[in-house]
Amino acid sequence: MLHKYARLSLLSVALTAVMITFNHVYVLGPEAFGLGAVLFVVPVACLWWFRNTRSPVAFIGYLLMNLWIVLGFGFMKGLWGIALPLFAGTFLASLSTAFPRPTLGPYGFEASGILMFIGSLFVAYYASQFVRAKRAASNGVRLEPAGPRGQVRLVTSAVVAVVAVIGAYVWVDQDRWTAPTDGVVKIGVIVPESGPFAILGNSFLRAVQVAQRDLRGTKYQYRLVMVDVGSDPRTARAAIQHAIRVDRVDAIVGGISLFGQVTKPLATAARIPQTCVCSVTIIGDGAYNFTNIPTPDAEAIRWVEEARRRSITTVAILSGLYPPSIQGHVTAVKAEAARQGVRIVSDQTFDTVTTDFRSMIARARADRPDVYYVEAPEPALDQLAQQLSEARIHNFASVVAPSLSTRPELFEGTWYTDSDLRDFGFKTRFERLYPGTQFATHMMPYAYDDLNLIVQAYESGRNPAVYLRDITRYQGTAGPVTKAPGSGNFESMPAVWTIRNGKPALMD
Amino acid sequence: MTNRTHGWILRAVLIAAVLGGAYMIVERNSPALNSSTAVTSSGAFH
Question: Which of A29, A36, A317, A457 could be disulfide-bonded to A347 (CB atoms 3.0-4.6 Å)?
Answer without folding.
Answer: A317
